[in-house]
Amino acid sequence: MYIETFGCQMNELDSELVCGQLRALGYGFTARRDDADVILYNTCSVREHAEQKVWSRLGELTERKVREPGLVVGVLGCLAERDGEALLRRMPVVDLLVGPGELDKLPGLLDNAVRTRGSMLSGDAADEHNKPRSAGLSALQGNTSRRSGTLAAAADTLEMLDLSRAVSPVEDGGPVSRSAYVRITRGCNKFCTYCVVPFTRGAEVHRPPEHIIDECKRLAQAGVIEITLLGQTVNHYRFEHGAAVTIGGVVQPQKGRSYTGGHRRDPFAGANVTTFADLMQRIHDEVPEVRRLRFVTSYPRDFGDDVLEVIRDHPRLCRYLHVPAQSGSNRLLGMMNRGYTVEEYTEFLDRARAFLDQPEIGRPLEVSGDFIIGFPTETEEDFEATMALVRKARYKNAFIFKYSPRPGTVAYDKIPDDVPEEVKRRRNSALLALQQAVSEEVAAGYVGREVDVFVTGLSIKERKRRARAVAAGGVSLTVKGRSVGEPEEDDGCGSGCSTQATHVETAQEPSSGIAQYSARTDGDMIVVFDAPEHAGLVGSIRRVRIEESSAFSLRGKLV
Ligand code: 5AD
Ligand code: SF4
Hints:
The chain has helices at 9-24, 48-67, 78-83, 85-90, 106-121, 157-163, 197-200, 209-221, 276-286, 305-313, 330-335, 342-356, 380-393, 410-414, 421-444, 460-472; strands at 2-6, 38-43, 72-77, 96-98, 138-139, 179-183, 185-186, 205-206, 226-230, 238-240, 246-247, 250-251, 254-255, 273-275, 292-296, 320-322, 366-373, 397-402, 450-458, 499-501, 514-520, 526-532, 541-549, 554-558.
């Protein structure tokens, strides 16, 4: 079996969970698509670019499927959910569709697909495309989604997927598994007018804190020292114990609260409620082996002072916030249904910096953002307002996307995509250039300072160098794998559209000489440094003195 993941960290985690479950059922994985008899694509439809990659991958399989009718092809994730059975008509090569809210059903469907393949090979069940005639190899939320409130009446089986996470101990020198993602919420209730996520991932549900803490403990016992909490609006987390429903001995996830943020503190916090601040404090205190706890992605309006205080007062909580602004124009923020003004956003940034930006004790706060350029009706004036926000916000980096109309969203249906492509391109380049200048300035502030870094693996440069050396010796080696959470290889789309195979080999620590390593500060700045090989560095936290900087990374020396 081969699985390739497109899109965000949430998809990476979904793929990891799915692989663990399938492995436990006896499926084996290969890093080479050509060797696999089952191919799964875990897809993203947040922007057109990510979607195009999936279409082209599927197109590449058409010929092979004719040659090998027994090949099973599955599309998982947001694209499957959005297009549903229409996807099967457009791409007859696909046998199996599973939306992100139904991944717990994958093993059953896959078993069915593999069995049908058996009978198909014997020639009694294939249609003209050599596809199994058995209908129904799909699990999609559709209209009967988990958003309907049926949670109170039926066990949330998707929660079982997270609960059944297979955690393997970190092997000696194993480079990847000291860093892990843990989901705390699923779905989103915000309905920004450009965004497909509320439709593909469904309504927001919050996982019970006990489940989250147990998962963190199991990961820590296995050797994980860095955990990233995941949610589409992660800081909106809130669990009411009094209202918890238990089915079959399992506490069920809870629907997102109906009121939205804007609060300085949760007015109902108390013994019966676990807020996001409480959750972080509990993980910090109850899982001390976790030396770094971070979270993505935050919604600007949901940051109470309680969250900022918890980060300030707990040394193992990272001082890094990823808080998309999307635009600097109040008119466009309104059209996007973002629920805040640019003044409220900058007030939040000032407040966060007042609490957390302490470079004098070696703990600066770093912030990153997302922006959409060319949202319908965007004028030069709106764009200038976005440029002004980027100048003011001083992000360490920002993910900048050209607006892409997404079928099914309000903007797609109601607001014509009227900003010409060349205008989008020009504004995109101008904003990128400005952010690059800001990133250079932020990075330059580190030169001469000492910082603690989490060593994620060999640097991309080093891995490419090694791959070239191996290839020159006649053996091919993939450099697609990256250490979990390592942003270095991102193609500039941040939480958006980096693509990688989940189960390719990650480069092991080298065997002789000096190598270049990649690492991250607790503010998520990328640091590269040279060190002797086999120093057992990967997966550890080390102190580095920064000597040089660029917009994209810092260069330092181990101290
Ligand atoms: N077009 C362009 N960018 C989008 N994003 C989400 N939807 C769209 C869209 N339709 C961006 C937002 C979000 C990030 C994950 O992707 O900036 O924060
Ligand atoms: Fe999409 Fe984020 Fe808005 Fe939710 S908050 S609808 S995930 S952009």
